[in-house]
Amino acid sequence: MTAGIINSGLSGLFSNQVQLETAGHNLANATVDGYHRQRVVLATQESLPRGGFFVGRGVDVQTVERVVDRFIEAQVQEAKSEEAYLDILQQQVNQIASLLQDGGEALTSSMQAFFGGFTQLAGAPTSQPQRQLILSTGSALAGAFGTMQRRLDIIRDSLDNGLSSAITQLDDAATNLARINVLIVEQGQTSTTGASPDLLDSRDRLIARIGTLINTSTLIRSDGTASVQIADGRTLVEGGRAARVSAQPSETSPSDLTLYLEIGGVTTRITESKVTRGTLGGLFEMRRETLEYTEAQMGRLALSVAAEVNELHKSGFDLQGDAGTDIFLFDENQANNTAETILSQSGLFSNATTYSETAGRRVQSSTQNEGTAQIRYSIPVDPIVSDGTQLNNVRQVTGDSYSIVYRDDGDGTVNVGDFTVTTLAAGREVQLSAASFTAGPGNGGRLDFEGIRLLIDDVTRLQPADAFEVRPTAGFAGLMKLGISDPRDIAAAQDLVGGAVRPGDGRNAQALADLQRAGRIGSTDTNDASTFTEAFSEIAGTVGVQAESAKLRGNAQTALVRQLTDQQQSLSGVNLDEEAASLLRFQQAYQASAKLIAIAGTLLQSILEI
Fold it and tell me: Residues 165-172: contacts with CB within 8 Å, 24+ apart?
């Protein structure tokens, strides 16, 4: 009889001790991120027959388990991944939106001052101070474009650093998760109830960390280990093995860092468009949709201003009776522009041409190309008419970036049908006509589309699937500079009389002033085209809409994360009041079990004394 009482008391002591330890553990970890409340699972010991009835023998501690709902956990992790994506997207896009707002004031005021100077010069075409004002304001305008580009370059460098950091964190988290998987298996082999709740919490924290960096799909195996697939479905972690992730130059755009995955010694690129959530998703989208758009469109604006001003200026005459020259130039000697002739009057082939092998970010050959052909590009300023079709007018330039892929159609010749041209951002296929391709000297070739002229050094060195990327106007804003330095070279007059400028002829200066209010961007039809100021407003407006959209979506997502987290914490979080009450209850139960053992001892002593 006393043995049964003692067994009940001892089992009660042990179970209540475990419950006290577990409640204390919960209280100690109440503020630890990712901690799940633990509870003791008890089971009644099998009763013993006693005559015609059964008598209980106490309680068994089955295990200590986490209070967790995998469905809610998956919802929280997915919501936090989306929140991380929107947070970084909003942060990064806001940088460009602020740049366009702050730098835009300097740029638009510089444009107004520059064209306003021509209005004043039109009234006093021989005035040296007014002519000097044109040079000063022109230099300020080129400087404003340059400042804008330099700040965009700083943002790009910061974005690359962010990508490198996030990919390094992803690699570390994957490696640690694989290590945790090994420990989970080891603990499972030495325990009848599997790995410890704290180790499972560590596993889930790493899964959540990976989810804040990239979109994932996670499967919890029956042994408690986690299998994680990322982005396009490739496995990042399986059991004790983790694929290595790294930031490397893209094979198609070697100047851009992107995400690579190494499995079994084979390294492959993760398609950026498949990375849709997490910090990496936000950074990739910002670069693709906002940064490259802004760079290209600002370059297009700088190109348009320069081309339109130069074209009209060259139709007039300066104080010496000479035809005007280019007011604006683009510095081709800068390091990132060594391989492109940007503005060309004819776009013809040249034996001195350099090609994509030494090109900067605007012309890139895929590192996977099997052929050795190289390309360069030009943007001819003057319209070229072929078969009655006007080609290569600068107003046709869209600001898009392009992928050019060579696909041999097998007819034995290189022609327009061998090329596929698509825009990088939207994937729009550019319609090429028979006149788009022209054979050049030797084995050269020329491909014309949307105001761009590609020059291929040797078409016989092209191989099927060879790919090139061209960002025709990217970085243009940083290359703009003043092309004249003598005030007398400003062509304010419209024509000559007897080989000399007529006194007071400022009609060309007035025509240049009127450019500010003329439609010149977005269409060859001036009635449908935008003015320079309108074009800048469209750029700023587009980025502003992106920033506002990211903000609204981010606020909504934060509210959703808060709601789901509250729901998760109501189940898995530590309630201090509840744990404090449990401590008192378990303490009293422990004391009662100890009292039961004491009573059993007294009873046993009484029996022995009989």
Answer: 166/213, 166/279, 166/280, 166/283, 167/245, 167/246, 167/247, 167/259, 167/280, 168/247, 169/209, 169/213, 170/210, 170/213, 170/214, 170/245, 170/280, 171/244, 171/245, 171/246
